[in-house]
Every structure is written in C-alpha cells, then in structure tokens.
Write a structure and sequence with these properties.
single chain; about 120 residues; alpha+beta; three-stranded antiparallel sheet; 3 helices; 3 strands
Length: about 120
C-alpha cells in the first residue's frame, strides 16, 4: 500500500515486486510450517515483519534494518506504525483495491520512525 524509506536510501527493486515476493515466501512458509515468519536475515541487513488485522484483512508491515539493530525495538516501531496507519486509513485499507495513491502523504506521519 505504501513504501517509505530513510533519506539517502535508493531502491534497486520495485517495492511492489519486492513486497509481492515476500508475501509469496511468507505464504509458503505459513502453509508448509504452519507458522508465520517474524524476520528474514540477509548478509548485512534483515527484514522484520509485523502483521496487523483490520477487520478482516491482514496487513503486513516490513522494516529493513542493519543486523546490529535489535528486533524488539523495530517490532515496537512497526506496531506503532500499524496503529498510526490504521487510525488514519483503516476504512480505506479494508476496502483497498490496489490504488496506492490513497496513501500518499503517509510518509509525513512517519518521519519520526525513519532512521538515516
């Protein structure tokens, strides 16, 4: 629904393709292991996941951080981001039909969560 990154970070892959890929991996793991994925380690970075439900949709929030950052701190931040997002866009999110422009401007609400 939205992609926000810290200043100076450039994406080398389309964020929609990346999130689709992650959702496929997540779905396969849920089916095969009957469990949800909490994080994924890369060589120097990791992806940390948070899922929130509103009211009948699961929304996945993903943070990409360096390995030295504590998962617990990022999970708390993702929880806060989910709360802010649902407070502002909950009704639109539950009826979402792939129109990402509905969520433009959300980056301003998240400035305090982005690390440079």
């Amino acid at each position: 629904m939205f992609n926000i990154r810290a200043k100076g970070i450039q994406e080398s892959v389309n964020p929609n393709l990346l999130s689709g890929f992650i959702n496929v991996i997540r779905g396969m793991l849920q089916i095969s292991a009957n469990s949800d994925i909490e994080s994924m380690n890369l060589s120097e970075q990791k992806l940390i996941f948070h899922v929130s439900t509103y009211p009948d949709k699961n929304l996945l929030y993903i943070a990409r951080v360096y390995n030295k950052v504590k998962d617990k701190n990022i999970k708390k931040q993702l929880q806060k981001i989910a709360e802010v997002f649902l407070a502002k866009y909950g009704p639109q999110a539950s009826q979402w039909k792939c129109e990402t422009s509905l969520f433009e401007g959300f980056e301003k609400d998240l400035a305090e969560y982005l690390l440079d």
